[in-house]
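To whoever is on call:

I kicked off a structure prediction for a single chain this morning and the downstream step that reads the tokens threw a length-mismatch warning. I double-checked the sequence; it's 208 residues and nothing unusual in it as far as I can see. Pasting both halves so you can look.
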Amino acid sequence: MEPNLAFRLAFLISYILLIVIRGFYTKKTPFARKSRKERFEDIKREGLPSAVVFLGMFWIQMIVALFYVLDMQLISWSYFLLPLEIRVLGVFLGIVSILCVLWVHRTLASSFSATLEVYEDHQLVTAGPYARVRHPLYSAHTLFNAGMVLVSVNWILFLFLVIGMPFTYWRLLEEEKMLIEQFGDEYRKYIRQTGRLFPKLRQNRSSN
């Protein structure tokens, strides 16, 4: 098989697997049972401008991804060169990140929400990937997007990866504020023992 065709197939399969996993587990959460109006209200509470940026970036990214899979010449100017081995590394990063997303969702179960909120009788999850990292889903998605940039060798997807980082960081900071309000000292202790996006090299086991 011609290498570029193989990479396009790997890219397509990776996106399909990610979307299927996210969709399957999201449907099992209280968020999925909300009406469209309730979901929109949740988005508004997070800040409509940020939501618009996120959604806009998501759909443009999906269009570019589709153009890449279909090998459309419209974006031929946006490709750059990488060694074959680096592109294979991108496929590997995609596989690892998809497995991480699956692990996160299986750990969170019905505690997952697509918006920043806590449910009634919400429990702080500290098992599985959350034992060492507070935001493993953000880490996995960033890793996935980086892998797909290497696979597609596309500057537009790289640009979206870079632009999305500060918005992702802002959102996880807002999530931490929300969880501190909900869980107080329990979450502050959890912060001391874990890394935000990557595991701490040394964990602080102190209960103070």
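Update from on-call: the warning came from a stale cache, not from the record. Cleared it. Sanity check on the structure: The chain is about 65% helix and 0% strand.
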